[in-house]
Design goal:
By secondary structure, the protein is α/β, with parallel strands linked by helices. The protein is built from 18 helices and 13 strands.
């Protein structure tokens, strides 16, 4: 009898716990999230725990159903959601370009009223909350910061071994090619197999050098064409890079996932990528290891602009744009618990804790004016901060101002150009045709 009573009590306790758990779950607000993350990148595992799991732990009344994709699979899924007219509750997005459909269809809410209501609007740099800087005409996403899409990463150890120094002009860079080759080094490493890297991380900067800061505005306003001399000269320079061996055709078989390992293992003297790629070389907090040690970062790695190009219109400029951030579905009912939960998540993802984490891991440079500490970041992140301080003229990032098939047509043609299968003139004609069709 005692055993029977005890069994009944245990069963009742278990049943009560199940009911309590079920009751707790029934009271949770569920929000869907489409996120962008490279699962192979350093600190990605820890980010899941320190950012996403930490939010749920602090908000037990909110449950996140998160879909995580990277590179083209992410953009394809986003396009499918946008075509349906309904986005997930919260989603990773760009200020224009890749997210143009979201902006044009008003699929993301204006976050300005939410920021102002909570008194955090003025906590962000003015450039990052400028409504005119986003394709929607309002703050559809709170950018993590400003992003430079072109950066020339330099390994001074490789240069010094070859008796070389950092070039100030293209002719000086070109002269280094045979010297580096004799020692078994590539000159510039780049992930040109991927279908966006060339146009975003190199061509955008080159187009600005030849066309000026307003080259894209002129084309969009119908005052210039892609077939004009300035754009043609920029395309011709890309061909020159391949002809001179500064860029090897090997880059056309190099994937975005492989190129960081090549640079870290000193396969080449230089790497061209975006400023966000700094994070790939920093210490992974889950392993305590870095692709490039902090000591080596400090001694041997420099971050610079591409050197002076013959015939360039402006010198020292670089391509930059507002960074990415998270948007909220415009389909969420105003004042609903789902809207409130979505805003809490976006506020967290854009707030000081997460922005500090992103700075520490090299993922982005903060858009917040205060609440961020810069004293404990690794040497490469410190050099990134110095790079921003020295940056002067900003020019457009191609896939941030042109959408649809235009960037992909340009990138594919630039790949064909590197293989010698197409002329610069044909590249310009193809891009103009894609632009005309998109209008």
């Amino acid at each position: 009898m005692k055993k029977m009573v005890a069994a009944v009590m245990v069963a009742a306790a278990v049943l009560g716990s199940v009911y309590a758990l079920g009751d707790k779950k029934s009271k949770q607000t569920v929000i869907t999230v489409l996120d962008y993350q490279d699962a192979t990148a350093p600190n990605s595992f820890e980010d899941n725990k320190l950012i996403w799991e930490a939010f749920e732990a602090a908000h037990p009344d909110i449950k996140i159903e998160r879909e995580v994709l990277f590179n083209e699979p992410f953009h394809q899924k986003t396009a499918a959601y946008a075509a349906s007219g309904k986005m997930p509750d919260v989603f990773y997005m760009w200020p224009a370009g890749r997210s143009s459909a979201i902006h044009e269809k008003k699929l993301a809410k204006d976050l300005t009223p939410f920021m102002k209501k909570d008194g955090i609007y003025n906590d962000y740099s003015k450039a990052c909350v400028d409504p005119a800087a986003q394709a929607s005409g309002y703050v559809a996403e709170i950018p993590f910061g400003l992003t430079v899409s072109h950066m020339l990463y330099v390994n001074k150890a490789v240069l010094e071994e070859c008796g070389l120094s950092i070039p100030k002009t293209y002719d000086e860079l070109k002269a280094q090619v045979p010297v580096l080759k004799a020692k078994g080094y590539e000159t510039i490493l780049m992930a040109n197999m991927d279908d966006w890297v060339m146009q975003s991380c190199l061509f955008s900067a080159v187009a600005g050098r030849f066309g000026g800061a307003d080259w894209a505005d002129k084309i969009k306003a119908g005052k210039a064409k892609f077939t004009d001399k300035a754009f043609l000269d920029a395309v011709k320079f890309i061909k020159t890079l391949y002809d001179d061996g500064v860029l090897s055709q090997k880059t056309l078989a190099t994937s975005y996932g492989d190129v960081v390992g090549q640079f870290a293992s000193k396969k080449g003297a230089y790497l061209i990528d975006g400023d966000w790629r700094v994070g790939a070389f920093l210490t992974d907090s889950s392993t305590g290891k870095a692709l490039i040690s902090p000591a080596d970062q400090k001694k041997n790695i420099e971050l610079i602009n591409f050197p002076a190009i013959p015939g360039e219109k402006i010198h020292g400029s670089n391509s930059s744009t507002l960074g990415v951030g998270y948007g909220m579905s415009s389909k969420l009912k105003k004042g609903s618990k789902e809207e409130k939960a979505a805003w809490e998540l976006i506020k967290w993802l854009s707030g000081p804790y997460v922005q500090q984490r992103r700075l520490d891991t090299g993922a982005s440079f903060p858009s917040l004016n205060s609440g961020i500490k810069y004293d404990n970041i690794e040497p490469l992140s410190q050099k990134r901060a110095a790079f921003y301080t020295a940056q002067t003229i900003s020019t457009p990032v191609f896939d941030s101002v042109f959408e649809g098939d235009v960037p992909s047509v340009l990138n594919a043609d630039l790949q064909a150009l590197g293989l010698g299968k197409i002329t610069p003139e044909q590249v310009c004609k193809d891009v103009q045709a894609a632009w005309d069709a998109s209008k």
